[in-house]
Automatic annotation (TrEMBL):
Aldehyde dehydrogenase domain ranges (all copies): 14-470
PROSITE patterns: ALDEHYDE_DEHYDR_CYS, ALDEHYDE_DEHYDR_GLU
CDD domains referenced in this protein's UniProt entry, alphabetically: ALDH_CddD_SSP0762
EC number of the protein: 1.2.1.3
One GO MF term attached to the UniProt entry: aldehyde dehydrogenase (NAD+) activity
Protein name: aldehyde dehydrogenase (NAD(+))
Source organism superkingdom: Bacteria
SUPFAM superfamilies registered for this protein in UniProt: ALDH-like
Annotated keywords: Oxidoreductase
Reactions accelerated catalytically: an aldehyde + NAD(+) + H2O = a carboxylate + NADH + 2 H(+)
Gene3D superfamilies recorded: Aldehyde Dehydrogenase, Chain A, domain 1 (3.40.605.10), Aldehyde Dehydrogenase, Chain A, domain 2 (3.40.309.10)
Active-site feature positions: E244
Amino acid sequence: MKKLNQFYIDGEFVTPHGTETLDLINPVTGKKMADVTLGDEVDVQRAVDAANRALKIFSQTTKEERIAYLLKMHEVLKGRKKDLMDIMMYEYGCPLYFTDLLIQGAIDDFKNMADLLKDYDFEPRVHNSIVRLQPVGVVGVIIPWNSSNGFIATKVSAAIAAGCTVVIKASELSAQQTKVMMECFHEAGFPKGVINFVNGTGAVVGAEMTRNPGINKITFTGSTNVGKIIAKGAVDTMKRVTLELGGKAPNIILDDADFATAIPQAVLACYINSGQACVAATRLLVPKHRLEEVDQIIKDFEKDLKVGDPTAQDTVVGPMVSHTQWERVQEYIRIGIEDDKATLLIGGLGKPEGLENGNFVRPTIFTNVNNKMRIAQEEIFGPVLSVIGYKDDEDAIAIANDTPYGLGAYITGKDKDRIYRIATQIDSGRVCINGEFHDDLAPFGGFKQSGYGREFGSYGLDAYLEAKAIINKDLY
């Protein structure tokens, strides 16, 4: 039985002060696979102290020095790609095809940030002033269990590029993945105290990071409810905050699209990461007069869709991360059937045949959904899709925007001018067109209750910098 009982603080693997442990359960088999020691406030303070000591020197490093660290980390991650993928599938159950995409993205984050840094101007001239862009300070990184190491890579690569030091709280459910990432940072040879990890719960470790005056910024990915708690807690010490929160992404299929291709693609866009993704396209908006055709295409496509072993090449949907998450998804399927009284097209309650031991859900699709239904308004975080009919473009836009969220959106069609016009009217941080999913240099973040602040590219780097105006036209 694996025992995960070390944190990474001040350049060393150390024994935690906290003594509480948590059982980690394999989502495929339902059996215990490890236990992890959870940190406490003392562990956080040790990490914060180390990060502040390191900040004094690291904040003064040159671009060239930071580029070298980023490129070294990129090389280390490339060498550990298989390890990173294997542990993600084993611990989390993410399907192979998506694990590969996520881990490759994490590897690329460090190279992308190094490339961006080469031409980034940290002292632009503005009228009679020099604007000095300097590191915000010690950054608290709080991330969830879905794509844990991907989130670490995105946030930490930007923080390092800016000259910040970090204290990272990954989800306690991702402790085995976190262990591999700690090893990678150690191998990359960052100076002591620049990178620090503390495992633990949000209620203890996350809360201490949020209120600790030694942390200058919090960057958080997770649920909207927790994001609000962090935002409130950060006010007392005036921390800078970036929040990437929940989503209920609309996927608009225009009437000129090739439905034979677009509809299966739309189903897969809901099932990314087994539906456990904030950008999953969980609302499928189609022309009302073609709803019957859409339903038939979905039923034909679902016949061959594989749920099961995440390591298999053809698996599309793996297990939910935990039994608690499985129960949450089951409750929403029940709500769709009994309370919302939506039409159940595919799936339903219970586990797929032969997969009773793990946290597997029957991929579920409701049709004839009204956008006011709970299954159309609330983030489910599982493979559950709502098919909603619309009358015309304006109706599609109205339905797409009728949600508390605004993280991602999708449009498929042929008329480029029409697509662009619709995209400009969608209240969302990203609008992906004709099967596109991600641009790792374009800004990513939310409107409305999907959060604030941006990640990736120059927008992501900007979030870790403070602007200081040095006003004197004759200084240089």
